[in-house]
Amino acid sequence: MHIKLNCNKETTLKISGTYKLLEKTGKYEEKVYCKLDNSLYIYKVNKTKYVISTRLYSESYRGYITLKKSDTLFSKNIWKIYHGNDLWIKDKILITELNELAKSDIKYTVTEANSQPFSDVVIVYSKYSNIDGAYEKIVHSCNGNIAYYNKEDNIFLYKLRHFFSRYWVIGETLGSYYFYLKSDIFAELPENSSFKSSDIIIKPYVELEIYNNINEKDQFIDTDFDANLFSIGSNEIVKNFKQISWIRASNLQPMFSKMVLFHDVEPNDIIQGCLGDCWLLCALSSIAEFPNYYKTKIFKTKQISKIGKYEINLFDCSKNKWITVTIDDRIPCMKRTIYTPAKPLFSQPHENEMYILLLEKAFAKLAGSYTKLDGGFPSLAWIVLTGCQNIEYWVKEKSYWGKSIIVGNKEEPWNFQKPMGYGTADKSTHENMFLYLKQCDTKNYLMSCAIHGDVMEKKREDGLVERHAYTLLQVYQKNNIKILKIRNPWSTGECNLDWSDNSLKWKEHPDIAQEVKFTSENDGTFWISWQNFLDIFDEVQIACKSLITV
């Protein structure tokens, strides 16, 4: 099935055109459509809102329409379309079903469409810094085919034939059969090929208007935490990234996107950058399980500030009260390339949400610099974010778990490497510890876990990392099966044990997979058996406060 869109007030994205119905339904069991040139998608971001976006299931979109329960995609036609500079224009879009394709559209359905022009530049979106970025069109030195070269990372995107199949692949040597990843489905143009299993997206580069043209004279500047090297704090960071730019967060949008303060807040919004503040991002990720908390309790500024000024509520244990921390939205970034926008130096938003960048900056201001966040305890972040001063610190011994209590450091409340606390006589057997964690999960407490070791963030053969803070998201039991859901703030790096993403356990127990809504994605979130958890993990921290009612 195909549909035809006619848009009156067209944008540079060229919304009008023919869209095909995809076989797979969307997150809300809705029909999903893709433009025949693979440049745009139509899908739902919630139960009532259809959007038009350049990336499937992205929370960043360029057009939307809100429908009532009785409405269909065809029954209403007044959409809001983004035209740049924070301008959303109402537009009448007519959608009609097509019984057959026009001759001009048929070329897009042919896999070998040699007549299609190759883009001069394509952008690869990836979590991995050695793969993402801009690839410029070149001619393959061996066979004369079109290929692409990323000169920043010295890596190639090229076609490769293997027996009776062909792929687009990304690798260090042009034409080599040794490469990093390959496409699932081949099309003549790389942007039309599917790379879903490799978790990357390829889009042609299009030079768009510059959003949010800002006159700095009209913007708020936080002179108490200025855009300079003192706020970064470490000479080592400066050596590794000699050219650091401070960019307004509202100008950090990726291609075709526009930065927002919040979308659908979730743990996977949060990705660690080149700073060792996994403890902070672990704490932020656990609170993201309760989306309204950041919006209603933490951020006094509810929308994107036109002058770049943000007020954030945080708890000061030395005063035993909530305080307002005021910051500007200038974010330290790595040097940008000619085709891609500037990339934050430290925490990375998963898509285009600003709240993570601003929270990290607020903590850095309190600590004195960004690099003073290098190392710390999730419990201390929870105190600042929730006001909870009953943080349990459980350490595993040979036959039991022992409990201590962590409290805020009233003399140095913003020294996140120096917790205060005291021991207790409370102990728990391994069996009772699982039941207690399950009870804490039911009460919606915040939890984290870690593996002890001699080396900071040492990677293990089982995929886990020592001396690294993980978020403990869920505790599940069915009969004698006990499993835990854990998230790595790196947004990658998962365990390879039983109940991991590729484990056969999920096929053996499809009922459990359905009940826990299991998905296999390279997003840093994974499941692990309680026995493996006992064998490997050494500590658990619990903030005994529920955020579910906020």
What would your notes on this structure say?
By secondary structure, the chain is an alpha+beta fold. The protein has eleven helices and 32 strands. 15% of the residues lie in helices and 31% in strands. The strands form seven sheets. An eight-stranded antiparallel beta barrel has the order 1-2-3-4-5-6-7-8. Strands 25-24-23-32-26-29-30-31 form an eight-stranded antiparallel beta sheet, sandwiched between helices. A seven-stranded antiparallel beta sheet has the order 14-13-12-11-10-9-15, with no helix packed on it. Strand 27 and strand 28 form a beta hairpin. The radius of gyration is 25 Å and the shape is globular. The relative contact order is 0.09. About 2% of the residues have low confidence.
CATH-wise, what's the superfamily of the largest domain?
A: Cysteine proteinases
CATH architecture of the largest domain: Alpha-Beta Complex
Q: What's the structural domain tally?
A: 4
Mean pLDDT: 84
Number of helices: 11
- Poorly predicted regions are 109-115, 209-213
Question: Termini, distance in Å?
Answer: 44 Å
